[in-house]
Write a structure and sequence with these properties.
Number of strands: 3
Strand order of the largest sheet: 1-2-3
Distance between the termini: 46 Å
Strand content: 5-15%
Number of helices: 13
Length: 194
């Protein structure tokens, strides 16, 4: 990031109010905030206190090393950690948990809701370098009877913004996989296409 932009962002994060930061947050990339944190680690806690949970989750996921991800999470006030974890994908949490000692892992898992905890525990059963260890439990399934219009409406109303949307998994009434559809194919097809 260029020096002028870095200085302006650092100034906003350190001296700006929560409202000012919230107003600008949509135009700030989490990697840029992470750069400020790396350059000014003494102010990490102050910066994180001013950010919304979803932004903190994005910053943690930008961090390359799982130990550093956990260190960032620990800088968040204890009563906000669960909210941050709720914003993170289960596979990212599993990657972090897989690097922790048993006590820290149990503390991390205790903050998750039942579904997320089960998903993370399931992912932890796989070696991190295998397909199972690399997979995510976040995906979108659509019913085989849907049209393109039905699918687009579903994506607009029912799908979490953090869920990957590159591929949609087509299932029958019993939930059996019938095929995979690329999102580009959905967007480029007439609305009445099955």
């Amino acid at each position: 990031m260029e020096k002028r932009k870095y200085n302006a962002l650092r100034e906003l994060l350190l001296r700006g109010s929560k409202d000012q930061i919230q107003e600008a947050i949509d135009s700030i990339h989490p990697a840029d905030i992470l750069e400020v944190i790396h350059e000014d680690p003494d102010n990490t806690k102050l910066i994180l206190e001013k950010l919304p949970d979803d932004t903190i989750a994005d910053i943690i996921e930008e961090e390359d090393d799982e130990d550093d991800q956990y260190d960032l999470l620990k800088q968040v006030l204890k009563d906000r950690q669960r909210g941050v974890l709720d914003e993170m994908s289960d596979d990212e949490i599993a990657d972090i948990a897989g690097e922790l000692d048993e006590k820290e892992k149990n503390e991390l898992l205790a903050q998750l809701d039942i579904d997320d905890k089960q998903n993370v525990e399931q992912l932890l059963n796989y070696d991190p370098e295998t397909a199972g260890g690399l997979m995510t439990t976040d995906f979108i399934s659509i019913h085989a009877k849907n049209t393109v219009l039905d699918t687009l409406n579903y994506l607009h109303t029912a799908v979490d913004e953090d869920t990957p949307k590159y591929y949609l998994y087509v299932v029958d009434k019993q939930g059996v996989l019938k095929g995979v559809v690329d999102l580009r194919a959905i967007v480029a097809s007439p609305f009445d296409t099955p």
